[in-house]
Amino acid sequence: MHGGSARLTVDRQLYGRSLLVRVAGVQVARMARAGLTNPWVALALPGADPEVIVAQVQLSEFLVKTLVFVDGRNLDDGVRVEDWRARAPAALDGFELAFNNGYFGWKGAVFLGVCGSVPFLAVSSQTRNPAWLVGAMGAFLVCSGWVLAVALLIRWLKTKRSWPEALRRLIVPAAMFGLPGLLIVALQALTERH
Fold first, then answer.
1. Is the pLDDT of residue 171 over 50?
2. 61 and 33: one domain?
3. pTM for this one?
């Protein structure tokens, strides 16, 4: 690969987390695939003149881009390697990866709110009592508010990277199940006194 041109291909292996780099159909290197925990992976091809760097960047959860740099410039847009590296997203740690789904956000809040209000709506349709509709609205607000509160807690815990990952993972279920449990016990204690 001195001077001249050759066809460069990067093939994903069916199994495993690596990529095969081929020049003119001959494998010249193997490199790790980018992921959310390692969003930038770069490999300088051995013996290439001028210098050729193959990089893979994970731009989002479902968007991975393979880049080829020759003499430090991207062949697609001419941007330097350093600039592309600076644009790569930050690596996620295990806690962020575990809570990187849409369940703890507005979609999960709406879903759980609807699930919480369905029994009230079912009884309301049978009894024609408007008080059950108020109960349905209250159940929706309580259930969705609980999920949004947990989502805010998770967002806050994502900023605490200096805390041990196991501690951050333990705080979430403790807040999800422990606080409502304490609330139920407190309500039972209050109703037994009166």
1. yes
2. yes
3. 0.64
